[in-house]
Write a structure and sequence with these properties.
- The protein has 2 domains: 82 residues, no CATH class; 50 residues, no CATH class.
- With 179 residues, the chain is mainly α.
- The N and C termini lie far apart (83 Å).
- α1 runs antiparallel to α2.
- Helices cover 76% and strands 0% of the residues.
Length: 179
């Protein structure tokens, strides 16, 4: 984009090469029009930027890249559309997360309902053990059975798989069966 200095230099050269006073006056008028257009463009751009900021302040979820227009009404309308589109996306995501949370709560309630140990008449309550506690209890029991020589094949397989992983555990069990 040309600056005022660029325009002045351009027309200075043209006017120096012109011998006719009338033509020089025309060139000077063209120069003044071009400079005025330059400043009008800058002023318009600044005005539009200000209006764009106003529209975004009014509709804060609007994406800046989606706010377009030359007038306050056009900018505000595009900001409103962008804002509403983003609101809808957020609402959809919240709804999906709420549904996911409800499903997890249902699974948890079902697990807790099925987690009763023993007879309810004897006063036993639901199990408060976590999966991690169950895991450590199994490991402790399996090592105890291994030390006592009472470890059965199923416990041994599970112990190996939990300690080294399924693939390596399967390979070890196959090797043990062959050997």
């Amino acid at each position: 984009m040309a600056t005022e200095q660029d325009i002045l230099r351009k027309y200075k050269r043209l006017m120096e090469n012109e011998d006719d006073d009338v033509e020089r006056m025309k060139l000077e008028m063209e120069q003044n029009r071009e400079i005025a257009a330059l400043y009008r463009g800058e002023a318009t751009a600044a005005r539009v930027d200000g209006l764009k900021k106003d529209a975004i302040n009014k509709y804060p979820l609007a994406l800046i890249a989606e706010v377009e227009g030359d007038t306050a009404e056009e900018l505000e309308e595009s900001a409103k559309k962008s804002h509403e589109r983003v609101e809808a996306i957020i609402a959809d995501r919240i709804k999906a997360k709420d549904e996911e949370l409800a499903a997890v709560k249902e699974e948890l309630a079902a697990a807790q309902a099925g987690g009763w140990k023993g007879n309810t008449a004897s006063g036993s309550g639901p199990s408060n053990k976590t999966a991690e506690q169950d895991h450590y209890d199994f490991i402790d029991g399996a090592w105890k059975a291994l030390r006592e020589g009472t470890l059965d094949k199923q416990q041994g397989e599970r112990l190996i798989k939990e300690r080294v992983g399924d693939k390596i555990g399967d390979a070890m069990m196959k090797a043990l069966e062959k050997g």
